[in-house]
């Protein structure tokens, strides 16, 4: 069966109705996406409308056309859809974990097409218009995500795996920790292949992040599975590095706070009566010894904090604790000396030495005053939904 399929370009109708001689004189100019195109020989003017073969217009728009004689149907795919179809191949020969990593890569690079390719057909259908309206880009120039860690991987059943991802947000002038997403991946028969597909993404709400179209944002904590329950933390070297990138800079700052008295601005005019040398700390984030302990216990385990900091610098019955409370204010002993930190931790060299249950050991190189230092082994443990240092840095 042979048919000549024509399409009416309604936007040109008014122009053609003004003068039929315009088309007849071949002076009509058509521009598609800024490129002038020549009308095909089959084009004709009929009842004030310009008719051209549908294949001509689709191909000039960068689309493809397929005609099914048996079904008497035409299928048109736009350039965007062709690109998306090619992206779909990423799901065919991958694992559940690698699919999550691919989605995260799409978030990092703000590629909506890459994110979309990892989703199940149901999620794709629900998010297509939003992705399209955003021109297949997500997020903004800032903030961006960094220090991404796949914190847990729970095999719910053979064809369903649930991942919990933790990450930080950053911009050019600030940094925030505490991002969390729960990603469910299922193995689904998608003709003619069986492939892993992301079926849901639940994100913990925060005021800073621009979430992607495929995420459901929850105001409460994302439901997670603890590594203690799973019996294994299952970290990779890259994830271990991301954990150290979050913990070590904070730990170095804490060593500075307790190694001397110059970490805070103070008001020397405000002192503790009868205790010469103490001055009031002027800092919105540190107004009491309890605030100091909170900062320490966000980085170190309590046992480690007690051995490194509390027993040496905060014990009330010592002659001169470095910090002490007085009348609801925090004071520091300005007579305490201290020295700078000469060690640099080369986190890019970090490698896992071993891991068991909810703990891991990581080895990395150091430098001391820019000279090669000894290798350092750091212990980390997972406690109350976060990774903490369980060993000293010095």
From TrEMBL:
InterPro entries: Cu_amine_oxidase-like_N, Mao_N_sf, TA_system-associated_sf
Protein name: Copper amine oxidase-like N-terminal domain-containing protein
Domain Copper amine oxidase-like N-terminal, first and last residues per copy: 32-81
Originating organism: Paenibacillus elgii
């Amino acid at each position: 069966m042979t048919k000549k399929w024509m399409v009416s370009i309604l936007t040109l109708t008014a122009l053609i109705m003004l003068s039929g001689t315009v088309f007849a004189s071949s002076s009509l100019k058509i521009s598609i996406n800024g490129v002038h195109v020549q009308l095909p020989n089959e084009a004709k003017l009929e009842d004030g409308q310009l008719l051209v073969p549908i294949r001509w217009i689709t191909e000039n728009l960068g689309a493809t056309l397929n005609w099914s004689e048996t079904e008497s149907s035409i299928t048109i795919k736009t350039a965007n859809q062709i690109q998306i179809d090619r992206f779909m191949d990423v799901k065919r020969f991958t694992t559940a974990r690698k699919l999550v990593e691919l989605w995260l890569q799409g978030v990092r690079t703000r590629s909506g097409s890459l994110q979309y390719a990892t989703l199940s057909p149901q999620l794709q259908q629900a998010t297509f218009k939003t992705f399209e309206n955003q021109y297949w880009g997500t997020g903004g120039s800032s903030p961006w995500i960094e220090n991404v860690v796949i914190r847990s991987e729970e095999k719910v059943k053979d064809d369903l795996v649930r991942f919990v991802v933790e990450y930080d947000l950053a911009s050019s002038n600030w940094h925030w920790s505490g991002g969390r997403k729960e990603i469910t991946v299922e193995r689904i028969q998608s003709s003619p292949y069986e492939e892993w597909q992301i079926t849901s993404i639940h994100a913990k709400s925060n005021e800073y992040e621009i979430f992607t179209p495929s995420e459901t944002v929850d105001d409460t904590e994302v439901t997670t599975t603890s590594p203690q329950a799973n019996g294994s933390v299952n970290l990779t070297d890259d994830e271990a590095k991301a954990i150290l990138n979050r913990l070590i800079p904070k730990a170095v700052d804490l060593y500075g706070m307790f190694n001397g008295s110059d970490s805070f601005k103070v008001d020397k005019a405000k002192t503790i009566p009868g205790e010469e040398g103490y001055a009031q700390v002027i800092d919105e984030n540190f107004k009491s010894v309890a605030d100091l302990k909170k900062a320490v216990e966000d980085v170190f385990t309590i046992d480690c904090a007690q051995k490194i900091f509390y027993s040496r610098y905060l014990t009330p019955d010592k002659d001169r604790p470095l910090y002490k409370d007085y009348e609801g204010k925090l004071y520091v002993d300005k007579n305490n000396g201290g020295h700078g930190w000469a060690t640099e931790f080369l986190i890019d060299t970090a490698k896992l030495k071993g891991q068991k249950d909810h703990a891991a050991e990581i080895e990395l190189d150091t430098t001391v005053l820019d000279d090669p230092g000894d290798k350092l082994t750091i212990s980390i443990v997972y406690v109350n939904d976060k990774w903490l240092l369980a060993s000293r840095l010095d």
